[in-house]
Amino acid sequence: MKNIHLEDMHVVDLSPDDRLWDQVLARRPGDDFLYGVTTMGVYCRPVCPSPRPLRKNVRFFRSPGEAERAGFRACRRCDPKGDRARIARDVVRDACACIEARDEMPSLEALATRAGYSRFHFLRMFRDHTGLTPRRYAEGVRARRLHAALADGNRVVDAVAQAGFGSESRVYEKTAALLGMTPGAARRGGDGELIRTAFADCPFGRLLVGATEKGVCFIGFAEPDDALMGDLRRRFPRAEVTLDDPCLTGTVQAVLDFLREPKQALDLPLDLRGTAFQQRVWRTLCGIPAGETRTYAQLAAMAGNPKAIRAVARSCATNPVSLAVPCHRVVGSDGGLTGYRWGVPRKKALLEQERRLKPGS
Fold first, then answer.
1. What pLDDT, on the 0 to 100 scale, is given for residue 5?
2. Which positions ≥6 away from 209 have C-beta within 8 Å?
3. Catalytic residue status for 96
């Protein structure tokens, strides 16, 4: 019988520092440590884009304070203390507030001068933090104003003026991108439409499903009946709503079956109303297989706009048909569970159940 030596088995027992070094080599995110380079006198985050140093020149630290007490200074490229990121967030937040407060779109030159940066630097900063140009952001602001004015019952011509558009023709030219529906439909707020609803008990508490003649327009759960119904009515303030509609028996059962055994997509006819960008994000969400997750950055890339990470997150947050459009499958850049309309514990439970039931797991 051949003797088997321990070295032939390639057993590797990595020390804690070796594991951290592997993470640095792979540029995997990590908020629990920093590394310092003795030859440069700087400390960095593990995702720093700088060329990798030699292992013998690296020390690991648990905090910026610890690294600085050892004589290291913060890297300017990866900003381990977050100073530059905080300044940029404040600058962009101020610019957004300026855009929100104006009836007319401020020029890029005016916004950059206000921030104290060159036009190019300011534009890049704004894009990095919002995923949009200032003009696209301003268009979104006007679209929200237009939608709110129409939902209040204002005439289209008055709502267009209140929102800051120069003419009705400009609104109708971009109606899909602005509202996801015609201005008249937005103004009606569901007026003249019938929404069938049905409640049921599910593993997370109460479940409410709402549907128009086109398809399911609302799925909510884990809240009291009044709260769920209030959410639906805010979306369709003028629609006629029927309760406990027997026509929804099969639809409700499909949702319950999915919650108990989410092996396949929840394939239901949907009536989704949102901007063209929201629609694209929601369609992309439906392509994430059960038992898998994607980060917001990955979802933005899949939707064709890698920089629009914040806009993608907002689209997930406004998803009206959870489960059918599985926004619970989107996680933070570090893999952590971020906010979820129906509660992070439910998000965790849904993902764990999907992974457990995933074929081959």
1. 42
2. 197, 198, 200, 216, 218, 219, 248, 251, 252, 255
3. no
Distance CA 201, CA 220 (A): 12
In angstroms, the CA 304 to CA 281 distance is 9
Q: Which residues pair with 99 in a beta bridge?
A: none
Provide the pLDDT for residue 323.
Answer: 92
Q: What is the dihedral of CA 182, 184, 188, 191, to 10 degrees?
A: -80
Q: Please identify which residue in the block is written with the tokens 């406990």.
A: 244
Contact 157, 168 (CB under 8 A): yes
What's residue 306's pLDDT? Answer: 84
* 8 A C-beta contact, residue 259 and residue 323: yes
| 44 annotated active-site | yes
Q: Which residues contact residue 66 at a Cβ distance below 8 angstroms, ignoring those fewer than 6 apart?
A: none
Q: Which residues contact 352 (CB under 8 A, 6 or more apart)?
A: none
| Those residues with Cβ within 8 angstroms of residue 240's Cβ, 6 or more apart along the chain or in another chain | 193, 194, 195
What single string gives the DSSP state of each residue in 34-62? EEEETTTTEEE-TT--SPP--GGGEEEES
Q: Which residue out of 75, 217, 316, 327 is catalytically annotated?
A: 327
Q: Name the one residue in this structure whose structure tokens are 């609803």.
A: 197
Q: What share of the chain is helix, strand, coil (3-state, %, to 5)?
A: 50, 15, 40
Q: Profile the chain (361 residues) by mean pLDDT over runs of 10 residues.
A: 41 66 84 90 91 93 93 90 84 88 84 90 82 77 67 56 53 49 52 86 93 92 88 81 92 92 80 81 91 91 85 87 92 81 87 79 54
The pairs formed by 143-148 with CB atoms below 8 angstroms and a separation of 24 or more are 143/178, 143/179, 143/275, 146/171, 146/178, 146/179, 146/183, 146/186, 147/179, 147/186
Task: Please tell me whether the overall predicted TM-score, pTM, comes out greater than 0.70 for this model.
Answer: no
For residues 292 and 329, the answer to whether their CB atoms sit within 8 Å is yes
The catalytic residue among 44, 48, 75, 78 is 44
Rounded Cα–Cα distance for residues 21 and 24 (Å): 5
Q: Which amino acid is at 277?
A: F
d(CA 119, CA 108): 7
Length of the chain: 361
Structure token pair of residue 11: 């057993």
